[in-house]
Amino acid sequence: MKSFPINYDGIFEIANVGVYRTTPDGKIVYVNPFLVKLLGYENAEELKKRNLENSSYYHPEYKRKKFKEEIEKKGYFIGTSAWKTKDGRNVYVMEYALKVTDDEGNVYYDGIVEDITELMESYQREKKLKEEWLKLFDSIPESIIILSENQTILDANETTMKLLGKDKGEIVGKKCYQLFHNTSMPPEGCPFIELVKRGGNFQLNEMTMETVNGRYLVTVAPYILPGESKRKFMHFAKDVTIIYKVQEKLINYLKQYNQILKIINDIQRILFREKDEENIVNMVCNKLARWEKLKGSCLLLKKGKDLKLIASHNCKVEEEIKELLLKWDGQKSISVEDGNFLIFPLKINSKIIGFFVVAVREDISKEEYGLLSSIAREIAFSINAVRLEKEKMVAYNELERTMRELTEMVDGIRNPLAVIQGIAEIEVNEDTRKKILKEVEKITEVMRRIDKIYMREEMLKKFLSER
């Protein structure tokens, strides 16, 4: 393109845009006052000393080589450029440049630049904010999607893509209920629908998402970006499946413990009420059969050097187990072909009187093991109480028999003694009489002592009968 004469005293001197003429080798031929001021120089002559081929005069993103290649190829250049001012600040301009040739064949680049620094800085701030938002958006561990007014997905974060196992291109444009619920319509309890119906700042519902096989706490909140007229909706989905499972497990756990406590309560009533050793252990084993984790239970008591099976409920005790129990050295469990058995020794005053054996279906907790240990201790205590009661009754009966025999003996002595005493008073001489009466008195004293013993035994008998 041919060059046109430039009126240096004309409009370019007062224009509110920068005007320049440069050469391909980087020399500045002309700059107008606006461009001198824009770049922070005192005058045009100072600015002309700047060699445009020196990269230090440009922002690192600006490539003069690319500018020259394009203007040489097309004859013009239109685009944004980033230059540096005298003091090193960045200036952004919208540049319009032409390649021109004068009558003598000299080539120049004539250009007009518009200062767009504020616009570019605003754009960069906006770009940075967007990048930070996207970084935050993708770093949030909960699923987030952006929805339109008709529940079309406009964007989705990384968590959502991982959750669904899909790329963003497979998610954007779909309806949220299609991807999360595999339905053609919003499901019952959809927080988006409820929010649209009632209005408000947000809606929070808990719901199942069928396609990801989980329970989620879903929050939907509307928002409008500056400069936009249509609402968008942010859809947060927090996975609460594990909380839901823990809650369910806790409920089951409480149900089990309620069952266990009822069983223990029934067993305690049996131990308190029953007075027969075999009845106690049979009824306890039957009650324990209601404990779901237990297959069965049995109780063996020592009889001399052997063990006798007293009670059993769904608990097969082979000779192998008996042999192991006879050699028991403190182990808490025994494993044999028929299964696993927990061993609880029955002790009275540190002496083992037998074993409470429990067959288990599954592992039991430390707390459950403690409950079974308590049951074993209470069984031992009750058996001991029953045995003491029996021993007491034997002693009572023996005492009663002895008292009866003593009474009969005293009565048997007292009557003949009275006769002897009468005869001594009437029929014998004084000296003999005194001797006889002296001996009678001794016998009478013995009988009085026996009577006192009898009274004490009567009191003891009354005491025992009241216990």
Layout of secondary structure:
Layout: E1 18-22, E2 28-31, H1 33-38, H2 44-48, H3 64-74, E3 76-84, E4 90-101, E5 107-115, H4 117-139, E6 143-147, E7 153-156, H5 158-164, H6 168-171, H7 176-181, H8 191-198, E8 203-209, E9 214-223, E10 232-239, H9 241-273, H10 277-288, E11 294-303, E12 306-313, H11 319-326, E13 333-336, E14 339-348, E15 351-360, H12 366-427, H13 430-465
Antiparallel strand pairs: 1-2, 1-5, 3-4, 4-5, 6-7, 6-10, 8-9, 9-10, 11-12, 11-15, 13-14, 14-15
Q: Which consecutive residue ranges, at least 5 long each, have pLDDT under 50?
A: none
Specify the overall morphology: rod-shaped
What is the strand content?
15-25%
Termini separation = 131 Å
Rg, alpha carbons: 55 Å
Characterize the main sheet: 5 strands, antiparallel
Structural class based on helices, strands and sheet pairing: alpha+beta
CATH architecture of the largest domain: 2-Layer Sandwich
**Count of helical segments?**
13
* Number of beta strands: 15
Mean pLDDT: 81
SSE pattern, N- to C-terminal: EEHHHEEEHEEHHHHEEEHHEEHEEEHH
